[in-house]
Amino acid sequence: MGSDYYETLEINRNATDADIKKAYRGLALKFHPSRNREKGSSETFLQLGEAYDVLSDPRKKATYDKFGEEGLKGGIPPEFGCSGAWSSKYAYHGNPGKTFREFFGGDNPFADFFTNDEPLQFGGLRSVVVKTQDSHIERDMHLSLDDLYHGCTKKIKISRRVMNEDGCTSSIKDKILTIDVRPGWKEGMRIIFAKEGDQGPNSIPADIVFIVQQKSHLLFVRQHNDLIYKAQITLEMALTGFSVDVETLDSRLITIPINDIVHPSYNKVVSGEGMPRSQDPSQRGNLIITFEIQFPEKLSAERKHLIRQALTLKD
Length: 315
Fold this sequence. Notes:
Residues 4-68 form the J domain. Functions as part of axonemal radial spoke complexes that play an important part in the motility of sperm and cilia. It is found in: Cell projection, Cilium, Flagellum. The protein has a 4-stranded mixed beta sheet. The chain has a 3-stranded mixed beta sheet with strand order 4-9-7. Strands 1-2 form a two-stranded antiparallel ribbon. The termini are far apart. The protein is built from 8 helices and 17 strands. It is rod-shaped. By secondary structure, it is α+β, with helices and mostly antiparallel strands. Helix 2 (17-31) runs antiparallel to helix 3 (41-55) and helix 3 crosses helix 5 (96-104).
């Protein structure tokens, strides 16, 4: 004996399209495997999907009403198809979760029901399902000082759990996230990818947050928008003057003359040679040159006398 689609949906043969939709909505929610763990519920859910797939389609419904399940699935002569009947052999795709998802819309078929609004009631029972978002996931993103100076594009592969079409099972899939690093970004900058965490039937995916961590640099230390460069000089240079050659992060060689007497706390500030400002990369911080004075390990008596004599001479 074939299936009675009307009986499956608990409606009569005079049911309107609205009646068919209403019946499927209620029964599909009642027997969905994620809600109903009773024996036979999965089979009922499958039968509901096939019944709705046929009765919601005018051509399939016309064929079923006139020729029954045998005519629908076995095919009818083409001449009968001119009245709008389904003349090809019908076979249900066998995925009731897909039917359910297409009916309710969206990747998560329960999205309209798992909310923080008033709870829904099914079958006279009060069912309260509060959909909450998973805690955000933080990951460090290590960038070189050159990356933060010039800007760059980083592509990061993540693996996450994604709900399958049936709305019940899930699988692990990879995804590439693209981050456009702007010149001047600082350590601690947070880049948020909303709802890119694991998917689940009863939860909102977590946000994934990447936090910028700056790698150390061989020559420069960053201080906000300024760059600190330490130059090692001799005592002679500190007292008599010299020049410092610095290769910048954009590969220019700049020469800075030092005509002052350099003492341990002396700094030379070169305006506009620091890091770009993230809000306006055309504006830059400063290059600050600090000095480490290398003193001689020992001096002869004669050299000490000459130094003493030079320092005590008056102009």
